[in-house]
Design goal:
The protein is an alpha+beta fold and 88 residues long. It has one domain. The strands form two sheets. The chain has a four-stranded mixed β-sheet with strand order 1-2-6-3. A two-stranded antiparallel ribbon has the order 4-5. The protein is elongated and about 40 Å long. The relative contact order is 0.28.
């Protein structure tokens, strides 16, 4: 089992998040898609503190309304856990 950094963040606004991580010197696990064609993935890679890992594909991976509504295709999102650290 991996040790947990200080904060957890679930966010798809990759650039805004990486700017905050870099400026504030944050250490966290960013949950974001692994979409190499997106420009913000390069920003995330620059901040990596450890190896990222894929999240398991599960029906309840993404939900809203208190778990009442599920994403119809969680397999298409390719969510990964990215351990990032800024201010180094």
């Amino acid at each position: 089992m991996r040790s947990a950094p200080l904060d957890f963040l679930n966010c798809f606004s990759g650039v805004q998040t990486t700017i905050r991580v870099r400026e504030q010197g944050s250490s966290l696990i960013l949950i974001a898609p692994r979409w190499p064609s997106k420009h913000w993935v390069a920003e995330i890679i620059q901040l990596l503190a450890d190896e990222p890992w894929p999240l398991p594909i599960r029906r309840d991976l993404l939900s809203q309304a208190g778990g009442e509504i599920y994403h119809p295709h969680p397999d298409r999102i390719a969510l990964w856990a990215w351990p990032v650290r800024g201010g180094t």
